[in-house]
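Q: Could you write out the predicted structure for this multi-component system? I'm mainly interested in how the pieces pack against one another.
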Amino acid sequence: MKLNITLPKFLRIGTLPLVLILLMAIAAVVAFTRYAFGIGAISDLSYSYPWGFWISFDLFTGVVISSGGFLMAGTVYILRIKEFEPLLRPSVLTAFLGYIMVAVALLVDLGQPLRIWYMMIHWNHTSVLLEIGICVMSYLTVLAIEFSPVVLERFPKLHKAAHLIHRYIMPFVILGVVLSTLHQSSLGSLLLIQPQKLHPLWWTPILPILFFASAISVGLSMIILESSLSSRYFQRGLETHLLAKLAKALPIALGVYLVLKFGELAIAGDLGYLFTSGIMSLLFWAEILIGVLIPMIWFSIEKNRTSPNALLTGAIITLLGLILNRFNVSWFAVKHPDPLFYVPTFMGNVDYFPTFPEVAVSIGIFSAGIMAFGLLAKYFPVFEAEHHHVEEVHETVHGLHPAPTPGDD
Amino acid sequence: MTDIKHHAYLFDATRCIDCRACMVACSVENNIDMDKTRIWVAGLGVTGEYPILQRGTMVYHCMHCEHPDCMSACPVGAYTKAEDGPVTYNPDLCIGCRYCMNACPFGVPHFDYDKGIVDGAFIDKCTFCPQRIYNGQEPACVQTCPTDALEYGERDELIKRAHERIAAHPDRYIDHVYGEFENGGTSYLILSHVPFKDLGLPELPETPINEVSEKVMEMTIPFALGWGAVLTAVSAGVAAYDKKLALSKVEVKNGKSAEKKAEESK
Amino acid sequence: MTQTISRRDFLKMGAATAGALAVGSMLPPKVAQAARGAGHLNAEGDGFIPSMCEMCVWRCGLVAKVVDGKVVKLDGNPEHPHSRGKLCPRGQSGLMNTYDPDRVLTPLVRVGKRGEGLFRKASWEEALDIVAANMLKIKEQYGPEAMVFSSTHNLSQVQFENLLYAFGSPNYGTQRSLCFNAMITAFQLTYGVEEPARNYEDVEFILMVGRNMMEAISTSETGELAHAIDRGAKLVYLDPRYTKTASKATEWIPIRPGTDSAFLLAMINIITQNELADCDFVKKYTVGCDGIVAEMQKYTPAWAEQITGIPAATIERIAREYAAAKHNALAHPGWRTSNFINSFQTERAIATLNALSGNVLTAGGCLSAEVAAEGAGLGAPKQPPYPRISALRLDGAPWKYPLVPLKLGVFQELRDAILTGEPYQAHGWFISRQNPILSLPDRAKTLEAFGKMDFIATVDIIMNDTAWFSDVVLPEASYLERYDPLLPVGDKAFLRQPVVEPQGEAKSALWIYKQLGERLGLGDFFQYKDEEDYIRQQLKPLRVSLEEVIEKGYAEMPEEEDDGEITFNTPSGKIEIYSETLKNAGFSPWPTWEEPPMPKEDEFYLLTGKVAQHSQFGTQNNQLLHKYSDEPRLWMNAKTASQLGLEMDDWVAVTSAVGQVHTKLLATEAIRPDCVYLTAGYGHLSKGLKTAYGVGASDSALHVTYTDPISGGQALSQTFVTVKKA
Ligand SMILES: Nc1nc2c(c(=O)[nH]1)N[C@H]1C(S)=C(S)[C@@H](COP(=O)(O)OP(=O)(O)OC[C@H]3O[C@@H](n4cnc5c(=O)[nH]c(N)nc54)[C@H](O)[C@@H]3O)O[C@H]1N2
Ligand SMILES: Nc1nc2c(c(=O)[nH]1)N[C@H]1C(S)=C(S)[C@@H](COP(=O)(O)OP(=O)(O)OC[C@H]3O[C@@H](n4cnc5c(=O)[nH]c(N)nc54)[C@H](O)[C@@H]3O)O[C@H]1N2
Ligand code: SF4
Ligand code: SF4
Ligand code: SF4
Ligand code: SF4
Ligand code: SF4
Ligand SMILES: [Mo]
């Protein structure tokens, strides 16, 4: 699209940023309305449906698609598979932004946003949500630390600090992996408390394990996706050979997930529901087909692992399927108590469909995330390969290079 | 003030005439907003085909569970289960996450969807009328019920009374006192002539629902510590291996290559 | 009249205007002084005060919780036999009547056209002067009979009647002919008692003919019935609708409207032909036991099956079960028995069934025909004799309706006579605690009658529809703000006392009637200084001080001697199954079958009735009741609806011979296919009722005026309507 007006140079922004800004502005207006008049003023949430699109999309999806960060950190730092280094920083950044988005979204969704910090001082140790809250807050800190060298490197005066962080990064990486393992799985545990509301095709005591297992595949797919997209957007070389390796791991990760999922159904004796629950069966098969079976076949084919387009396509399919899983578990397959035959009208809303403002908030926050990613990638050494001109920086403080082993010092 | 050791209610659906005096009484007693309520009617209403009809009415409010899921779920511990029965909520702690609403199998906690941040959006639910029961009065909803469909008293006694009623009129009741064991027991006990499902009551196991998630939560810290240790070990191991590998490479460069050459030269 | 505003929008509006339960948010509180004096209230104005509910005529005892001089909660008074510690939903909501934001709190004088709703505030002095001047003008020009008075049963009604008789008008309209004329007249003629008391203690078998006890609630009796059912008593319930009472009944008989008497006569047939009755009792205490077997022979169950659609075998079985329960059987007299022009016969059959069961006089029997003299034993202010009244009554009693007791009257006929101007033209109307624009059948006609009036004054607490069309509105203090004359119940006389002082300028009816009486030159008839003085005079024979009664909430009455003699206040002194009086007036002396009209092919019976959450035509603006009541819709059998291509919540036009309303449809299995039903009390015309205006439709706008010639009862189920998609 070409604008006919000529703008002063500093005002010239591309179409994508312009769209993103617009979407963010809409979200801001919606958020303002919500803060002034309450959540009911903009959403279809009700007594029957206290959680809706925001939780499914911002929390459940937002957290799981940020799992690339801990996967890459673990791979590069703990397993010291250095060849994946080029994927590390973008993944950590995606995760960092992802979690910030989750937090911002929660500030819209929470009834008392100003009290979000209460979770740090008032602990109810039986609450899964508390665990998630604490984990997410802590992990955000860890991510900030993990990502900070990228920012520090940008300013020569701060190289020392970057070096310091670089030196003591290991405990944080391990902490980050532990925290991620915990809350990626706990998102599943969140639903353990509603066995009579969540359809038996999804409710199982091993929900946390299933969540963790699928989070690995989502993380791998996200790295493929985000590398492919940014290579296109920033006209940058694509590390196809690296992505191919990730792609090779996918069928294995998905396979484990598939076995767990069906194994559990079989043991619980719930296999019957696979064909007898109407739309629920359909949703279940949809997430299994799109998120598991098709990707397993797709990525088993070598040709698909070496073609950038096929990689991207495969990753998108996997993500769609597994995100559908998160929507199913947290929304579509959740049935709230039966309609009440007499209720005052204000309680009568027993169906839920997200309103436009609800979706707009999420889209706005998402847009902010993309925008932030773009800006950071543009002005900071996120894609190291593209920043060879800062040679000395690269050599002296390789912020995100594998940490020196404890024995080194 | 009161000699009741475990406050409870008994609701008899066969007696309830859906007059809603209990609802009005609750709204007045607790000064509830005009567009909110703590107590409501659930169930299927009139079912069947003319002229063979039946009506099922269930007056619904907090069950005051023995193992409250709301309490288990609330991250900040806004709920308390009193030893003598009532489950209460403390607005001063609530962050408005609405997880309790998801957790409660009965859809009891309600949220202020119409309040912005200035007013503050809170949860509301039946409190068991502490201002009344600890002053020798019955809860407002119970006291006014014209047909005594709602009764109030000592949990054990009400359970006994309920079973006596079933025994006296086995043709009239379903042989079960809902809440005696459901979800580990509730302080709201229910008698019915229609399946409890038709009254909008969930089918719940006798073990408390939150048992599974609470077990998982108990495992969190040990798991985290263990997993952290494993990761540290792995990272140390890998690092050591790397070092060895690196060293061996140096060796290759320095000496082993000589061996190789020697071999080749054989 | 089309309602376009949806209930949801409406509620939002309501919520916006009302906010939280606006207890006392309108005016600064005024502590009830007398109650404080009696020690009910502490220094801060907090405490509990006993009084009586007036949300309906049952008048349960209540205990009001007062905080800071505001009523914050009402509970049932355990000491009052009508409440026994409980209140129905209306009673519970009572404080919202007092704190209704639409209360009228100063006298109002109309400035716009009638019905435009434009009023100006006036002082009591001025408003009362205007009312008195107009009444005197009418009296002078046309005679006192040109003033019509009307009021629905309430505790200060004695003084309303005092005003009317002192003024000299014979024209008195009460709710009775719209309500229970058929029952009262039938029991008066049969037992010599207006309304026999029911006793559920040992009841084993209850027959209820359209007495929807579980929705048209009388707190104590509703509870007694519930407990009887609980114990295992059988309830057979006749109603074309599956009401909440039907759902508690052992057996629901969805009878064809208007054919109840055929069903009951067939029951009598079975009982008498098979000698199942309590013969000793019947022979000793009734007139007609000889002839009844022959007389009832024609009413076979097979015959009744043809008419009612109820299988003969069912009728026979129920008759035998009823008879088997002997004096532990109860055929409930009913209450609003104004259904068909044959409803009097239905009531006569019910009266007969009770006589046959022997329940009336057996110890522990289920019906008590003792004459309870209202107010006997209480004192009253002295007053001169009333002027003689020579004018005919406009409502036709007794010259047109010889058997209608004068105190019941025929309200709908009174309204029609205003329109015809026969036998003479009425010119003024004084109304208190009544909403005839909605309660009389054929609302268009009532509005037309209003149009014929030179002057209309209304005493009410809110801007109800009748006030809206009046010239002067006099604001009464609500029942929580005023004294009323004592109400004897059993061995106690209960007190209604202010639990808060009146808001604004509102005054008690006792005060208003006295003030008006004095201005009309009738001061001699109102020999009490104020409300407290009035009650003191009532208490005089009991030798109890007012202060004591204020404190306790009631005064003990001396127990009446029971001489154990069984007599009935009828000409024969016996139960008159066969009534000479009826015969002499030209009617059948026996309970008999009168064929009621039936709807045409495409028409429906239009049924009316109460819901538990509202009283008549006066509570729809109560925000609490509004909150907890169902959306008013036209009930129609679900299958019939689908045959007509109508769906749930469709807007439909309901048309009768006299009117049309638009309302939403409720397709339900819970009604006969040939009937539709509207809850009475909706469809208010007054825009001064911000909560109720625009909600639901009025069935009174559809009702055709038919009067039962014997009892004078209006036939409210005898209107036939067509229903089309709007
Ligand atoms: N909640 C509440 N309680 C009240 C009142 C109130 O307004 N609200 N009002 C009080 C007063 S003043 C009165 S008079 C009583 C009235 O008490 P009821 O007489 O019990 O009440 P209604 O609802 O007027 O009518 C009862 C039933 O008659 C049915 N019906 C109509 N036509 C026929 C027929 O031909 N045959 C038969 N068998 N049934 C028929 C209707 O479907 C309705 O269900 O209630 C008193 N109690
Ligand atoms: N369509 C239809 N018509 C019917 C009936 C029906 O079921 N359907 N039922 C019939 C029956 S059973 C009856 S009893 C009649 C009742 O008919 P009405 O007596 O005309 O109606 P109510 O609603 O009792 O009238 C009460 C009026 O008193 C006012 N009011 C309330 N409290 C006070 C107070 O403290 N002081 C004063 N001064 N006014 C007060 C209210 O605002 C209201 O305007 O209707 C009859 N008409
Ligand atoms: S007050 Fe009693 S009878 Fe009425 S709805 Fe409530 S529980 Fe049922
Ligand atoms: S019913 Fe719900 S809100 Fe009440 S105690 Fe049980 S879980 Fe908590
Ligand atoms: S909404 Fe409030 S009470 Fe409910 S779980 Fe969240 S913090 Fe706890
Ligand atoms: S116990 Fe109290 S708070 Fe709970 S429903 Fe009854 S009246 Fe309301
Ligand atoms: S029956 Fe209900 S409305 Fe009537 S007096 Fe009693 S409590 Fe009040
Ligand atoms: Mo009535």
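A: Regarding packing and overall arrangement: The first helix of chain C runs from residue 7 to 18.
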